[in-house]
Amino acid sequence: MIGGLFIYNHKGEVLISRVYRDDIGRNAVDAFRVNVIHARQQVRSPVNNIARTSFFHVKRSNIWLAAVTKQNVNAAMVFEFLYKMCDVMTAYFGKISEENIKNNFVLIYELLDEILDFGYPQNSETGALKTFITQQGIKSAHHTKEEQSQITSQVTGQIGWRREGIKYRRNELFLDVLESVNLLMSPQGQVLSAHVSGRVVMKSYLSGMPECKFGMNDKIVIDKQGKGGGTDEAGKSTGKQSIAIDDCTFHQCVRLSKFDSERSISFIPPDGEYELMRYRTTKDIILPFRVIPLVREVGRTKLEVKVVIKSNFKPSLLAQKIEVRIPTPLNTSGVQVICMKGKAKYKASENAIVWKIKRMAGMKESQISAEIELLPTNDKKKWARPPISMNFEVPFAPSGLKVRYLKVFEPKLNYSDHDVIKWVRYIGRSGIYETRC
Amino acid sequence: MPQANENRHIGSKMTDSKYFTTTKKGEIFELKAELNSDKKEKKKEAVKKVIASMTVGKDVSALFPDVVNCMQTDNLELKKLVYLYLMNYAKSQPDMAIMAVNTFVKDCEDPNPLIRALAVRTMGCIRVDKITEYLCEPLRKCLKDEDPYVRKTAAVCVAKLHDINAQLVEDQGFLDTLKDLISDSNPMVVANAVAALSEIAESHPNSNLLDLNPQSINKLLTALNECTEWGQIFILDCLANYTPRDDRESQSICERVTPRLSHANSAVVLSAVKVLMKFMEMLPKDLDYYGTLLKKLAPPLVTLLSAEPELQYVALRNINLIVQKRPEILKHEMKVFFVKYNDPIYVKLEKLDIMIRLASQANIAQVLAELKEYATEVDVDFVRKAVRAIGRCAIKVEQSAERCVSTLLDLIQTKVNYVVQEAIVVIKDIFRKYPNKYESVIATLCENLDSLDEPEARAAMIWIVGEYAERIDNADELLESFLEGFHDESTQVQLQLLTAIVKLFLKKPTETQELVQQVLSLATQDSDNPDLRDRGYIYWRLLSTDPVAAKEVVLAEKPLISEETDLIEPTLLEELICHIGTLASVYHKPPSAFVEGSRGVQHRRLPARAGSGESSESPDVGQPVGAVPDTPPAVIPSQGDLLGDLLNLDLAPPTSSAPTVTPSMQMGAMDLLGGGLDSLMGDESETPHVPSRMETQSPQSPSECSHPELGGDIAGSPAMGAGLASAPVVMPASLGAPVSSGLDDLFDLGGGVGMPTGAFVVPKTIWLPAMKAKGLEISGTFARRAGVIQMELSLTNKAMSVMTDFAIQFNRNSFGLAPAGPLQVLTPLSPNQTTEISLPLSNVGPVMKMEPLNNLQVAVKNNIDVFYFSCQYPISILFVEEGKMERQVFLATWKDIPNDNETQYQIKDCHLNSDAATTRLQSSNIFTIAKRTVEGQDMLYQSIKLTNGIWVLVELRVQTGSPNYMLSVKCRAPEVAQLVYQCYEMVLKN
Q1: Which of A26, A80, A150, A218 to substitute to test the interface with B, most B CBs within 10 Å?
Q2: DSSP alpha helices (H): ranges in A295-382?
Q3: Which helix H or strand E contains B553, and what residues bound it?
Q4: Percent helix, strand, coil in chain B (nearest 5)?
Q5: Contacts with B303 from chain A: Cβ below 8 Å
Q6: B475-517 tens-digit pLDDT
Q7: Which of B249, B192, B253, B196 lies closest to B222 in space, CA to CA?
Q8: What residues does A279 pair with on adjacent strands?
Q9: Would you call B182 helix, strand, or coil by DSSP?
Q10: How close does chain A come to B144, measured CA to CA in Å?
Q11: Is the ipTM of this complex over 0.95?
Q12: pTM strictly above 0.90
């Protein structure tokens, strides 16, 4: 198990050091600093074995978090824990920065004592933690006996992510379907790989311990229902709108065995915002934009670049925050750009032409052309030609996912599914959306 | 509202960071005053300062009593800080730490469960023996506490206590209480109890602590659905250690574990994959469920690749294992392993590895297009690997070879130095795989000769020139150009150059005689490298005695290399599959390779397939049925045996990960001891571990040289340069001497067996268990038969593939023991086969004093790997036949040796009379020179001579009627006395 956990600033000064196991000595703190943070050559792995001690690290802005062990630990668990640790800290005091860590070091030690015992991760749901680890430092007398046992049963309970007795005057929930669409396209317009990784984020403000059921146009479910309904026609018509989900993962509140057997998504949600599920699709993806590049080398000191982008969705919808990034060679001396729409600028520090368009409707086309002057170099090595990348945001789900329902049952309290105000929003964003040129 | 939160927070807490900045003089003194202040707030501030100082590594242990005084408080935050301090310093101040005990005991009774848990959690972290005793009672109560939060904390505390004092935990019966907690109603208590028990069980490999049976498994599976993500990991990791009784149980567990594949936590997913991969072994392949399961595994594995990069890395390392074990799972998922432009380099490199593993005829076009793309990237390591990958594709998928070669040629045209070098290295392998097909590109390769500056690339190029010398008009010029800086080249290049020129000579003898003489004399006369010299001599001799035979040997047809070159050896792969998700799977090493102590030494095995369920308990599980892919992939006969070495197979096979292969790996049998023994020798030996042959054969010390005649003759022979004819005269004679490592010895090995002389031989013991040697088990003993020291070995193949190419080497040892010939395993050793070998040993090897004196470190190599072990030989094998000393000499010597060197021992319970003892000892070359009887006591005077000329004188007193002998040993080297005594014990009692 985890033997120790250290947090360093960018200079390698230790901000937090908590040792859980006897086999980890103080010198481990220095070993990581010398061999990883101050290493002459940047380390090429997030796991490093130094003097028979293994170090796992992640970096958040310029803060290093390192977990140390001498045993054959579950490596995936260690990283999951480090991410979780970051989430917990962020939930408590915002951005992970040197200043915030120094300001909250007592709190961090308290958290580390609670969520890691002898190197074994314990309940690390912020919802639960916040009930008894507070920034003020509660006095034991302040809790009544009932409160105390409520805390402990929640921390250890089956529903560790939600406390009892939550009350809202208005029962409301928000569902955000957030997708990031990833594309790698060849210069000739052939799709080399494309997938959507999506998340369903839920903000729930519901009283009591509500039992929820979430439904979407999952092909497997729809097909099953189509068969059950008996009419082939119905099956076909709904089948068109359904999507094939390659794989999905769920927040720990979802009953996985039920999903496995019935493919129904049922759960008691945590209070507030959390990620209900993640999913991935690869079939029938709507690619919101197509990028058509044309790069021509004119002699050794000039490049001509022309890039056309085409929007590929309903004309009534508007894409926003469009940004096309066209890489330029390192020896670029000057760039002239002409674009029909939006603004384009050559950014020497980023070695790229950045073309920004605020809004663009569906089924439209726009174009940019640039002349790039190059300095002659002796460098034999060819320019690597990084791909042209794109950023955008569209108000639909490129995977085609649709939320069919989210039913809420709370038998103990007097509100029904109809009383809950529900909001659904779809946002499709570009992930790594690249076209080779 | 995180923004608002943050602001408010900074407003109120801004002050905390100031604790990090105080570095005044007299700080400790000031803190002391503040800690003893009456004001609570001031006290708390002071403790915070202390903790901040502790964090940055300042020693604040002097404040121990003052901080502990703050412990009695109802402020939980302050209490936690004091506890934190205690955990850090209690060990250095054990006596004062006792002061804290009362508070702990009291806190364990507190009505607030949070405080009770805090107390028991902290107490377990205080590693002071005196305190642990006080801990037992509170811990016992807490294990049965009504509050689950306290119970789950107490469960972990048992593991803590066990780490401090295992005996105490057993004596107090905590293990049973912990086992009871597995049936607890609270899932988190169950999870922590499982975690604690698993950890404790690891240090008791043979105990049945976890006692997994269908009932307890059922409990675990129920808890699995209810506990936290971390708890699920503990339970799944524990489940993976269970071996189901039959395929039905296995299937039902799999069915209940598969839902975990949809968990958001990647570690839960990987641990579930581990359980499934393991239990799947037991399912019959024709079962429908088996196919379903295979299909279910792919999507979650792919999903892991959208996790954060660090987790992607862990996942990719594991996928690498999974695709080797079960290629069918991911065979259609090639695209997800395509490298993204902004993947971190560690993700890129791993993806590339998997791409090659998944490459097949169906997807090769896509893969090649990608690889070509990668070869133009910026990162040097990545580009190199991509180029190498192209070569591996060519070797793996025959249909693509032509395209790969043309892609490589395109890359060579880029003239980017490292790209060219990598390309040449892989093209060499392509030539090996497809002879007489792509040689037309040689001209292009030769153009780049000058730009090669890396040994591996130079060696590859030289190999190509030598191999195809007849097609390259100016081969002699090319090779000659390398010869100029011969001594500055690395060994790899030197060896290759030597071989290449010999090949050239055999192909074009007329023009190249001068060249070959030049290289032979460079290799034999001016080089300090024994491998190079040996090879030089052998070529020389071959060429001069029988050029036709030389041609047959040197230009012999080489075995083709086959596709997969860097597959993990099957037994290791199986073990790693059992460790999916853990560090072992990330390092691709068994836990014993990086974990100290008893933990992780346990080797895990995959269960056997249904129907042979019981065999998993039997000791020879070396070959679980169906554990290997249906056709075991042929592995390159990578480093050949001694002869193979001469056949110039020593170029490294295409390796994936290490573009620069360490030279010691490539020299086949010669260098078994290259460095592997370091680990065997441990830290205590300070001497540098020079490969043994270096010392003996170094020309500067001809007296120690293993073939002195040879050294002398060559050095002094003026005829040397005159022509090849001069060599044969000298060499057969010198090699014929009873000296190790000559070629002649190859042929007179079988003769050493038999001729028992009655000397006692210890029964064979296992020296190298199969687990440590990838399936090779070695047991053996030593004997002295007819004046020859024999190492009698039994080699058993417990792996699943055939073993070949055995070789053996000893490290330097106290008496210069060395194999007198190569290890002759006549036929390849097939699975489950045992072969008995008698290896004659000589005593003219290099000498280094060992501890214990009779310790022998041995390296054995086969086609799979090199293994190291050490064993101890009875000193009696060193007793020579001519060990009988003249009486007079004995007397004089006895007097001459100072009395300090005399050691006395008692041999108990020996019922032989003095005559019987004499005969028995004589058969072990312990000679009785005289016998005297004084007052019913027989005094035997005996002499022994060791192979290295040391005399040992012994006086053995046998009292009639008493089973106890008195032994006095006198020797100029008193270190051997103990061993001589052991030898007497052994001979007299058996």
Answers
A1: A80
A2: none
A3: helix B547-554
A4: 55, 10, 35
A5: 246-249, 278, 280
A6: 888 888 888 888 888 888 999 999 999 999 888 888 888 888 8
A7: B253
A8: A198, A248
A9: coil
A10: 15
A11: no
A12: no
